[in-house]
């Protein structure tokens, strides 16, 4: 039974701070938990309220995977249990429990429980404002005070009321608990300074970086292979372990078991070869020799070649691994394709189609080869090296183990150094290969232009020049590879020579048998063979850095579009009109200021959510090589055929489609080349009409249309844009006369703004543009009249 004899122990009081050359336990164990609970509850509550009210839940992919965070959490839970456990232990062993011990245990447990809650909230939610790097002041202060409080125990080193004497079981347990608290709080404080469980950057910046490329300036720094090695391996591992597919997971496990069996066989093949030689020289019986030979042949059949590349087990493993490799191939291609679609418009505008396609092919094959080689060649070879060193030291002597260790260490070291040096040649070769394929693809995509200007010979010459540059880089790559292979052969030969001479000496001295010499040579050659390809696969997959430069397009642009209004952007080419459209759709992000929809900054929302409410009719329309129906349906994939046709009617293209032999099932060709410019643009308008967005962006949507068709579509667009906010980029000013606000853009700035009539009265840029277009139309009408009269004559 537990008795609480009072708050403090006998002959002591909480008012006595210093007792017998130390801090009073009653005072210390009252003050410390009270301060910690106050910090965690007061600051932690404010922290949680702010994060719940003003923060947002982070997407799991932006939360760093960190073992140190798990360690933080585990230490915190362990300390919480320790406080409660210490109180229970003292009650169970002492019978009488002072009140301050109960307060210390309960207050400390509550404080640490609240700190754990704050730690979890901070990891899962983020404030919209830019936060400073690291944990919040609440957690850092809590851990700092807790660690400092444990250090205060040293002040009471000579006090008999503390546990430093370790004179009995109670003091020993209390010392163990203090040691646990001291180490735990110290680790939490110092690990907390790094904040391993939190993103390194503000959450909003991470969202933007995920949805667009980070723009850098300066030269690209090529990292070493080992830089970020842990991150690279962790990125590759999920491709080898098929999540959610038990059958494939069992295949992976079985292949790993076969891999272990191969390691065992590699040890016994040289041993049985040695036994055959010894039995032949010793004059053993035929039955014993035949048995040994059969076992050796069986093992050799299971092993195959010296590297185990064509044995029964390796062939079986390769056959079973096909399904896993297909899974890896599919996942890599799908994720890469998804990643390409998530990149910004700036990235795609700066890349070449052939370059991207070539990189996709090379990257997919490289990951497959790299995974297979790491799992089935590099790791097994390293295991074989360790086994061989242990075997030679145990069976022969330490000299042989030292020879193998020095040769292997020198082999791997020089391989890595030379391969790091020759990587620049291989990267340049890959770049030249990309350039050659890009030129070919670009030329074929623009074959019409090539024909127009009789430039076939020029294009062939450019392609041949790219091939020649590629071959120069290829020669450097192959020459450096030959140098690497010769260096490897020199090391292997030196090690084999040293070991063979030593082994032969021991044979002549009668310490070894002839079979031991055969065993050494066979084992070493078997060990070295798979290492020949180590340098080839060392830098198999290159990590490509992209380089972009910034250019300021818009400055001091500010305007407001009320719901249902139409805003028109006019101005000369290159003034920044289309850039505004792309900014609204978040193809780019602004470097200063912000763009808000209904008061919400669009840089702080997901692009998918934003773009679902915006429809765009671009200036240059590109169609998929598919049917007209599917191209229109791209605006809303779930739309029915009737809805597709209604959208085509609204875009004034339905009648034209019905004149085609196959109607809506007509194939439009590569990039829509089978349709005229006006027809392609009307398909794009039908797409947007089908999407039925709340905001419509028209980037010179009728620039490729004749006057009558333009008027028809303008009427259709006017119906579609009712009660929708519309931003129009227009070249023909006659199409935006009814706009609620016209912005005249010049050199990236808003030079004028107002309605049509207001701008004409100002007599500025807009008025000049209007007058020039009117004069051009009058001149065109006069020219058509003269042509008609001449024909009449």
UniProtKB/TrEMBL annotation:
InterPro entries: AAA+_ATPase, ABC1_TM_dom, ABC1_TM_sf, ABC_transporter-like_ATP-bd, ABC_transporter-like_CS, ABCB6_N, P-loop_NTPase, Type_1_exporter. Residues 253-538 form the ABC transmembrane type-1 domain. The keyword Transport applies. Keywords: ATP-binding, Cell membrane, Disulfide bond, Endoplasmic reticulum, Endosome, Golgi apparatus, Lysosome, Membrane, Mitochondrion, Mitochondrion outer membrane, Nucleotide-binding, Secreted, Translocase, Transmembrane, Transmembrane helix, Transport. Its EC number is 7.6.2.5. Its main location: membrane. It catalyses: coproporphyrinogen III(in) + ATP + H2O = coproporphyrinogen III(out) + ADP + phosphate + H(+); coproporphyrin III(in) + ATP + H2O = coproporphyrin III(out) + ADP + phosphate + H(+); heme b(in) + ATP + H2O = heme b(out) + ADP + phosphate + H(+); uroporphyrin III(in) + ATP + H2O = uroporphyrin III(out) + ADP + phosphate + H(+). The chain crosses the membrane at residues 27-50, 62-85, 97-117, 137-155, 175-193, 246-273, 370-393, 399-419, 490-508, 520-540. It is found in: Cell membrane; Early endosome membrane; Endoplasmic reticulum membrane; Endosome membrane. This is ATP-binding cassette sub-family B member 6. It comes from Sander lucioperca. The lineage of its organism: Eukaryota, Metazoa, Chordata, Craniata, Vertebrata. The gene is abcb6a.
